[in-house]
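Lay summary. Proteins are chains of building blocks that fold into shapes, and those shapes determine what they do. In this project we predict the shape from the chain. Here is one chain we studied, written as its sequence of building blocks.
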Amino acid sequence: MNDKNRLISADILMPEILNLVNDGHKASFIVTGMSMWPFICSGRDQVIIESCNIYDIHVGDIVLLQTPLCNYLLHRVTNIKKDSFETTGDGNCFRDGYFTYECLKARVTELIRKNRTINCNSLYWKFIFRIWMVLFPFRNILLKLLRFISRIKHKINNELSKR
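And here is the predicted shape, written in a compact code that computers can read:
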């Protein structure tokens, strides 16, 4: 971790972030946890969130929600019903289940990875996200393959850096 980043408990950070969002500001934080890998990586990627309501979210959007157990999840919306919505982590092979709209706190609009901004609302990224959701039945195999490729890439980069 570099000098400008500090780890702060979600119990402290999220209420402050949500105060900013509820006051009409955008807010950002570096993500922890690997449930959204390969699209969002723990400790590397930053998300920018904004306020939203039930009419602002669509299948494919990444949302911040607070579960009935009071923990926070940053997962993708995979189904919407009249009184609830379902989410799934991109790196998970199971659905989270349905949450009431009271759990919805914010929506991710952008990802920042290695000083590059990714607009989550661009047609390109919506297309990529949609393909990933359609491939859900094969996700276990795809995630294993992606991890294998990532390990090989990491080994190659380590060998090249030794030279």
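What the prediction tells us: Helices lie at 10-22, 123-134, 139-162.
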